[in-house]
Fold:
Amino acid sequence: MKTPVYFNHDGGVDDLVSLFLLLQMEDVEVTGVSVIPADGYLEPATDASRKIIDRFGKGQVVEVAKSNSRGKNPFPAEWRMHSFFVDALPILNESGKMEAPLSTLPAHRHLIETVKRTEGQTTLLFTGPLTDLARALDEAPEIEEKISRLFWMGGTFQAGNVQEPEHDGTAEWNVFWDPEAADRVFRSGIEIDLVALESTNKVPLTPAVRNRWASERRFEGVDFLGQCYACCPPLVHMETNSTYYLWDVLTTASLGKPELVERRTVNAIVIPDGPSQGRTVETADGRPLQLVYDVDGAGFFDYITELAKDSA
Ligand code: AGV
Ligand code: CA
Structure:
């Protein structure tokens, strides 16, 4: 039997690549997709999602819902523009059509309805802020027992990646966008598999990774990976604020192939407000979560490239 997976993402390059890869996983049934306008813009991120399902979904019918959630701390517009780039890729626009159904429900309601309708428990995959999940839990707390676990890219227990005037830099962006939502989900009983910022240290976007995809671009799906990541600067000399890691893709791969990662239990809380808002802190009285602390980097890149090869 396939594992039912509901995916909520925020339209970044690695979010959209995650959708592409999730659709290729043989043991996964994607029950629904929703898009929150955090690290992307809502319209292009939604359209790109529908086009990816059409082009690479192998006939699966997957409904897409738009979120009406808005964050407390907006992402830099420069990063959000990536969603327009992916949506405009010729490979996604060749047919001139969009057929994957668009839900009339907002994302959090779509999540509630989809989880309720799905037989047994659903696995959640979130690669942006947790706002839609927090709202779903507030409106329909009964869905909690129908969720088997949450795979989430968010947080850090080392250095943060937020560089904003009124912040101390200790938070990761997906938490910072809506710290209260992360706090809400941390207070639920849902089991969490976490990919934090430092979990991705072994999977930066490098020129070598790009060259590999370029050399195998005869596979349409591998070409798609290369095209998507063409708009992100690779890690060459030193890390900067725009260096790209495969944050969300690692989260998605850790769902598809758990043996790629090592996990340990960490107890943690979220700081909901103030200058450290969005910071995740390890503390004995925090809630337990399974933190990815090591990754088979080569195995990871092999896995996603093989998935992409099989996409046509
Ligand atoms: O903090 C990582 C999250 C991931 O979900 N996002 C990007 C991934 O989708 C925010 C982010 C951090 N640094 C970035 C980001 C960068 N240089 N460009 C775009 N987004
Ligand atoms: Ca993301």
About this structure: The chain has 13 helices and nine strands. The first strand starts at residue 3 and ends at 9.
